[in-house]
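Recall that a protein's primary structure is simply its ordered list of amino acids. Everything else, from secondary elements to tertiary packing, is in principle encoded there. The following example makes that idea concrete.
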Amino acid sequence: REKRMSLLCCASLLASGALQAPVVGRAELAARAPQPLATASRRALLTSIASLGVASATPAWAGYVTSLGIETTKPQDAEKDDELLGSKAVQDGLSAIKKYRSSAAALSSQFEKDTNMNLIPVIRKDFDFSALRNDLNTITTVFDDQTQLTTDRAIRAILYDVTELENASRIKKGETERTPKKIANVQKWFAKLDKDFADLLAYYQ
């Protein structure tokens, strides 16, 4: 009971922004992926996230993480704390994640109509990194430690997708149109972001 109340408290703090949990809870993984300083610029944060996400460039739901020997927990095998899942903090976090996914889908549709549109301002507006990371951390507190090894990897994949989507969206100074190759690259990251959101949300169905 005390552990459950503690988890509920932590989830509430995460949702309010008063507490920022690390992406992973285990010492070894945390050592591999230190959080960026709060004072860092967005560009520095994007660079940090991109460097951390290199390992996530492969499919987020591979059978195991070779370097760490971590087996993937399937959605049907995940253990959840139902009371924590029903808390306001977690439910608000889930609503936010679903909204992020909807926003990405809407932006992708706009891009299909105008492949030369300026995407970066919208990406930065709709995908605030600090808020996105906190929401992802909050909703994954409902799982057992073993499942969190898998959801931690999902968090990294999503943050990496957003980073690469922004990078792919850049247009060089003086250019007004994207080449077919650049258009395809943007479309690729929109598709991957949607898939990784869907894969994570499958754990809550």
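Residues 21-67 have pLDDT under 50 and may be disordered. The chain has one domain: 2-204.
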